[in-house]
Amino acid sequence: MGRYEDFQAYRTKMNCRILGDDTQRGHHPDGSARPGGTLVTRRFFGLDGKTYEDGALPAKTKEMLGLVASMVLRCDDCIAYHIDQCIQAGATDAELWETFDVALIVGGSIVIPHLRRGVEFLDEARLKG
Amino acid sequence: MGRYEDFQAYRTKMNCRILGDDTQRGHHPDGSARPGGTLVTRRFFGLDGKTYEDGALPAKTKEMLGLVASMVLRCDDCIAYHIDQCIQAGATDAELWETFDVALIVGGSIVIPHLRRGVEFLDEARLKG
Amino acid sequence: MGRYEDFQAYRTKMNCRILGDDTQRGHHPDGSARPGGTLVTRRFFGLDGKTYEDGALPAKTKEMLGLVASMVLRCDDCIAYHIDQCIQAGATDAELWETFDVALIVGGSIVIPHLRRGVEFLDEARLKG
Amino acid sequence: MGRYEDFQAYRTKMNCRILGDDTQRGHHPDGSARPGGTLVTRRFFGLDGKTYEDGALPAKTKEMLGLVASMVLRCDDCIAYHIDQCIQAGATDAELWETFDVALIVGGSIVIPHLRRGVEFLDEARLKG
Amino acid sequence: MGRYEDFQAYRTKMNCRILGDDTQRGHHPDGSARPGGTLVTRRFFGLDGKTYEDGALPAKTKEMLGLVASMVLRCDDCIAYHIDQCIQAGATDAELWETFDVALIVGGSIVIPHLRRGVEFLDEARLKG
Amino acid sequence: MGRYEDFQAYRTKMNCRILGDDTQRGHHPDGSARPGGTLVTRRFFGLDGKTYEDGALPAKTKEMLGLVASMVLRCDDCIAYHIDQCIQAGATDAELWETFDVALIVGGSIVIPHLRRGVEFLDEARLKG
Predict the structure, then answer these.
(1) Which residues of chain B fall short of a pLDDT of 50?
(2) Distance CA B8, CA B11 (A)
(3) Interface test with C, best of B3, B116, B124 (most C CBs within 10 A)
(4) Is the pLDDT of residue D1 over 80?
(5) DSSP of E22-44, one letter per residue?
């Protein structure tokens, strides 16, 4: 598996662990059901999804906003997720590179290692398209 | 002076101190000229301006990217600057509030005090329009 | 007004601006109603309040968790807010100072200026008690 | 080895490299002893341990404070360490999930990838109990 | 009072509140002595001072290290403190501007508002010299 | 390959992908050339290199400034890069450990896991010298 599949598989597995029902969350060694995300956690995940829906701004722009925020906060998984969402919303490479520019200038050279991994993920994600 | 004029006046004064010529930078008590920004600093300021020019993405979108990055990194002056630039590039209130949404969800409740000051600045900036 | 009243008054005014109804949000110069927080923003504020209610952990502990998170992320308004909430939930000074310890050790000397302002706020808040 | 053992083994090895005596720190290729942590570094490590001892707040609460601080600052190793310490201090799953809530709401969606890895670590740590 | 005196006066007052003895810390409205910093807090402040003493690196270099760290973490008070310490350790303007360069490039444009306030503080501090 | 070679090889490969010419950047599945870094990105990388050249401060000091900034911002790749540059500029172990001290005190215990990995990298880099 490449990085693209690894990322998607782990994200799905752990979201299921956090948000799933009793069966999906598994059991502790003593047989008791493992607790999962609280009502607050579940609502936050729901709200997170709702944030990027089409509105006054199209979903594509919102995903680019999510991408630049993830880059300056330097979270590789969040960057990978939003690059994938940007592609699915129709963002071109030229649009993504200009989004990278804003992240680089606002966030500085500390963003560079995350840019490298983001570009590698972008190349792999384009191969799945 | 309201916060809008304070912000613009201080920004202009200090950019002049950092990027200006010998006359603009003033003198030390001993009469020697105060040094200002190095070549690296000057080039960085130039590059910063260039980042938000129209390209594959319009300036308005780039300014919203700059705004969301500033909000999650929680810099009030940067937020004020990009709100002002968004307005000048034609962003509507509805577009700005959806940009605030992404910042709030990605960055969490720690963004809220900056959102309050950003909204106050937005209201004042609209009065100047 | 001292810092305690300033903080509370500004917070109330701007929350009203963001979450209030049409009358509370005021109007643009052209007479049109100012938009306020979107549905996402409003739900996030609601969820934020819900997070600190009594549960498996008492509200007091949750407010101390909110305080330490605010200190290491270095947001003065959030620190003031959670100190006030900790006091209302019955936290003692000794408990607050040990919370400050964790923030200082995890977050480092960069937390110190925020600790100074937090202690000043604490002293003022105790005077209102 | 699972992630739990990897984490503990690496932490022990490197703490020994930083804080150990001449024998434990090893040698440079030229046979000279490798320097380790300075007096400042050693005292900081000592102070760090002292911070979480029982006081006005019980160790369990302090470890939850350390956990929430680590989550909003997004350090996976620190999260793993404090989850382990919380468990040893008797924290229940319900208490840990409410600690996760505060981290998620204060720190935003950027915390989610760290929550996923934290939950995975928690499940593995419970299996060792 | 200018910003330089304000900064020094507030820092002295609050350090006295945190680290001082019973008399210096004042009293609660009910006449009981206000608690101050715990042993952990006091030791941390002591260790912080010790970190910048001459060693393998001269104090001047260490203060520049403290300055660049404060700039990329964007703490105005910490920046002011280390600029003052750099001046007292003999740093030239040229050395300080190259330190600013590193902060600007590593930390990005989000550092700019802090650079503006740092330069203003530097100019005022030079007037006291 | 050890971590030292892995780091250097990945950095070289991705910088080539971002800054290289058409041949070096490769092609999309449809045969079209992959875009690379924009003019802003390329200039930023150039400016980044220029920042650490000898000036009023020697390159060695600037690299230590870059190192402490990278440590408090907690970027492992940036830490590895600047440790390597410090070594090539002649920094001694004693100087590096005092740089670590400043990072640890300013940034707090959240820096510790990055210190562990930095020390491991330092030991490996010294073996190449």
Answers:
(1) none
(2) 5
(3) B116
(4) no
(5) HHHH-B-TTSPBPP---HHHHHH
**Among E93, E89, E94, which Cα is nearest to E63's?**
E89
- The pTM of the full predicted model, rounded to 2 decimals, is 0.97
What is the C-alpha separation between F96 and F86, in angstroms, rounded?
8
Q: How far is D34 from chain F (nearest CA, A)?
A: 8
Give E87-125 pLDDT, tens digit per residue. Answer: 999 999 999 999 999 999 999 999 999 999 999 999 999
The mean per-residue pLDDT over the stretch D84-94 comes to: 97
Return the residue matching tokens 């970027």: F75
- Beta carbons within 8 Å of E67's beta carbon, 6+ residues apart: E79, E82, E83, E86, E96, E99, E103
Note whether F107 contacts E68, CB cutoff 8 Å.
no
Distance CA B103, CA D19 (A): 41
For CA atoms B62, B65, B67, B73, give the dihedral sign: negative
Three-state SS for A41-70 is HHHHHHHHHHHCCCCCCCHHHHHHHHHHHH
Subunit contact D17:F119, Cβ cutoff 8 A:
yes
D11/F116 CB distance under 8 A: yes
Question: Which residues in B lie closer than 8 A to residue E120 (C-beta atoms)?
Answer: 14, 17
Confidence category of residue F129, pLDDT binned at 50, 70, 90? low
